[in-house]
Amino acid sequence: MPGFELIDQLERNSVLEVFDKSNGVLFAHGFDVRRNNIFRVRDFEIKFAKALGGRKAAACTSGTSAQYIAMKCLGIKAGDEVITQAFTFIATVEAILACGAKPVLVDIDETYNMSPRSLEEAITDKTKLIVPVHMLGNPAEMDAINAIAKKHNIPVLEDACEALGATYKGVSTGLLSDIGIFSLDFGKTITTGEGGMIISNNENLITTCMKFIDHGHDCDMTLPRGKDTASFYGFNYRMSELQAAVGLIQVERLTHIVESNRNHKKIIKNELSNFTDKIKFRRITDENELADTIIFNLESPKLAEKLIGNLAAQGLGTKNVPDAMRWHFAKYFSQVWNNTSYYKNYENQWSVSDSLLSRSVSLPVMVNWSEKDLEKITASISTAISLL
Ligand SMILES: Cc1ncc(COP(=O)(O)O)c(C=O)c1O
Questions:
Q1: Is the pLDDT of residue 1 over 90?
Q2: What is the 3-state secondary structure (H, E, C) of 202-264?
């Protein structure tokens, strides 16, 4: 699955170079002479955007802050409604709340992403943003979602935190809408430990995000930083040079990570296709998904529970569904709904998503599996299913 599997001497050397070549300047800006004019955060942003085929990217501290920054720079404010999906990560909802806006959460469909039909039903005069989340590597139905957004003249922000490396009809996730965000935390396709990236082909929008990340600084290179100008105020969401030093190496690993995921997933899925009487795979919107996860559903929650027991007996765990549902399905976000005025009846909301997720099992696909590992894992999953 993630970039952490590949961390080695290259990342180590890159971090050491911050000290050896740039005299330990850990800050993204200024100190030009001391750092020998090497700007790793800036270089990482350029390299990241290029790797995805996008025009411009802005690095920041996390996927959560990326989400918030993008929303603020799109002008989301109190009184607005932002539509996202009930199966997500809690950060999506937190970012909406941090803007003072109302989160409107719609059901998912068999893609395990935003249902375009539920989206359209939820649009009101107050809807100011649509946030599809490409959950667990599978791009959302972007054609349908963008068509609805266009019809109602509402911008779209993709939460692509879990789908870096996936493409939909040949275009990278994050670049399928007005703006996209990624997480670079330790469980993601590539990692900087903590970190986030915002991407768009709208260069002005990314420039605004860059300013917001850095207290509003215009970053006018002809001026000393202390005399830099600003037209609005922001906050501090800056990435450090140490994170970027790791990111610069990790982004070079992206193609390998994605290819490995896809090969491994294909092998396991082929084997599991013998069991289509017992399991139903998630609908994949593009074969060039990230492929770091296999999700399927069974006939009942009881059967899913039994399978999880069988998998555990084979030494296999699950990924997010069901083990981290507490953080991924809005029905369990009690800390949000008990402290806001939205969704007082949250335990009985999102029945379509609930029915699907309560019967679902999701398994991780790792990058570094050897042929032998794959054989063993495939055999263990097959045994666990055949014992149902
Ligand atoms: C879908 C989704 N959105 C947002 C985030 C937040 O990213 P971060 O952990 O970098 O803040 C995550 C991270 O798990 C995520 O999976």
A1: no
A2: CHHHHHHHHHHHECCECCCCCCCHHHCCECCCCCECCCCHHHHHHHHHHHHHHHHHHHHHHHH
